[in-house]
Structure formats: C-alpha cells, structure tokens
Amino acid sequence: MRDYKLVVLGAGGVGKSCLTVQFVQGVYLDTYDPTIEDSYRKTIEIDNKVFDLEILDTAGIAQFTAMRELYIKSGMGFLLVYSVTDRQSLEELMELREQVLRIKDSDRVPMVLIGNKADLINERIISVEEGIEVSSKWGRVPFYETSALLRSNVDEVFVDLVRQIIRNEMESVAIKDARNQSQQFIKNESPSTKLPSTARQDTKQSNNKQSSKSLYNKSSQGQSKVKQSTAANEKRKTSHAVPKSSATNKTGSTTTSQQKKKKKNSSACCIL
Ligand SMILES: Nc1nc2c(ncn2[C@@H]2O[C@H](COP(=O)(O)OP(=O)(O)OP(=O)(O)O)[C@@H](O)[C@H]2O)c(=O)[nH]1
Q: How are beta strands 143-145 and 111-116 bridged, if at all?
C-alpha cells in the first residue's frame, strides 16, 4: 500500500500540532511546545478503502522553516492552518500557498483551508465570511473552521484532503488515457500506413511533410480533447466547493440520491 503524504502548514501557534495529534491519537495538547518537525502515521478507511497516511507537522516559527521547500516537494496534499484569533496567521497563509503552488508548479494542488481555534468565541478576529472569501479567492479551496480542543471538524479536514488526492490521481489517469487514445488514433489514421508500398516510395517526400502536418493537427485535436476533460474536471471541482448549505438549497428536491451521496462526501465548507 502506498503512503499518502500530507503536510500541515501555518504560522507558529495556530494549532497545527494539536490538530494533528487530535487526529492521530485522539488527544488534546494544551501546552505549547514549538515544533521543529514531527512525522505521524495513521491508517484510515475512506469509502471502504484503507489508506496509510504520513502526516508531517511542520514548524511555524521562522527559525525552523529551512526545510519547507523539501517537504512541500514531497507532500501530496496540504492543510493550510490559521487561527481565527490571529489575523497575521491568515496573512502568512497567502505566502505559504503561493510557495506551494510555485514548488509544485501546478494550480491544482490538493489543499484545505482551516481556521482553527473556533471555540475561542470571544477572541475571534477573523469571521467565517472572511474565511469563505479567502477560499473563493483561492479557487474555492475547501474551507473548514476547526477546534482541536473540541475535536470539531478534525477528521473531516484530513478525509477531505485524502479525497482530493484520490480525485487528482484519478483525473491524471484519465488525462493519460485520453492522450494515449489520441496517440493511438494518430497512429491508426496516419496516411503512410494506408498507402500501398509502391505509392509510399514515390511520394515519400511529400508524405513526410503531409504526415507531419496531419500529426500536428491531430495532436492538437488530441490536446483539445484533454483540455476539454480538464475543463470538465474543473467544473466538477467547482461544484465540490459550494458551501454545503447552499448546495443543498440549490439542488433541493430534484437531486437524485446518488448525487446527494456524492455531495455529502465532498462538503467543502464546514463551520462549527
Ligand atoms: N482554544 C484552543 N486552543 C488551541 C487549539 N489548538 C491549539 N490550541 C493551543 O494553541 C497553542 C499552540 O498550539 P500548537 O498546536 O502547538 O501550535 P502549532 O501551530 O503547532 O505551533 P508551532 O509548532 O510553533 O508551529 C497551544 O497552547 C494549544 O493548546 C484550539 O482549537 N482551541
């Protein structure tokens, strides 16, 4: 079984270790001991399949962030955590997300935006709406408010992230298949394979030119096929990101039970 490498990122003191330890061990740490780097393992079952997770709890404070580039490279999914009591921690996440996208060289990296310490009602500085706004700006990255103290939405954020990784992997396989199919199509349709051998000899030069031209045309057709499927996937992704409540309202009575099940599995915005 393959390991799914998840990385927990965020400023110092936002609760990364508490969320991770709550998820892995079901224990709440109420003392603050700044992390250098801790790795945890957990096996979970999602949709009747078992996954081995390796979770890297990273350092939030600047002195210990030298390894960041390395673990972003090896991470498959990212939990980006801020504290709802600390504006600076949300601002730091903008930079962190940019860094992840740059290092991964992709804008479709599995990630979850997390506003932790939601139990601290009187100390709250960042509203739920602000969290939702950031999530929309980020292309509707799934957003949750959590409380490591109350163990609220803790499992949900990890499960959501694993689901995103699985979905991404399936989409990559689909894109590869589409590419292979279009290449196969080009091979089968190549004019040189259809001409009798004598004619092939006579027209060798012009055919070469022609076949490379048609190759170009067909491969661009193939590419557009792939693009279309990517666009369709984007669309799917967008629908996952609709906050649970509005998704239910919109689809209402016309939603089939299967569709409902799908939506239930992909709630993208969860508050306490
Ligand atoms: N009330 C409340 N306090 C929390 C919560 N999560 C963490 N804390 C507290 O916040 C402090 C910091 O938590 P940590 O989990 O160590 O924070 P961190 O993000 O791992 O910090 P670094 O290791 O420095 O990056 C601790 O005193 C925790 O008890 C929460 O959900 N609610």
A: parallel
Place of tokens 């709250």: 124
pTM of the shown model: 0.72
Residue with the smallest CA separation from ligand 1 atom 16 is 32
Residues 59 and 64: their CA atoms lie apart, in Å, by 6
Among candidate residues 86, 93, 85, 91, the one with its CA nearest the CA of residue 113? 93
What is the residue whose two structure tokens read 């290449």?
183
pLDDT digit string (tens) for 123-139?
999 999 999 999 999 99
Q: What per-residue string of b and e applies to 218-253 under the rule 16 or more CB within 10 Å gives b?
A: beeebeebbeeeeeebeeebebbbbbeeebeeeeee
| CA-closest candidate to residue 239, choices 268, 205, 202, 207 | 268
ipTM associated with this complex: 0.99
**What is the Å distance from ligand 1's center to 15 Cα?**
3
Q: Is 167 exposed, middle or buried (0-12, 13-18, 19+ CB in 10 A)?
A: middle
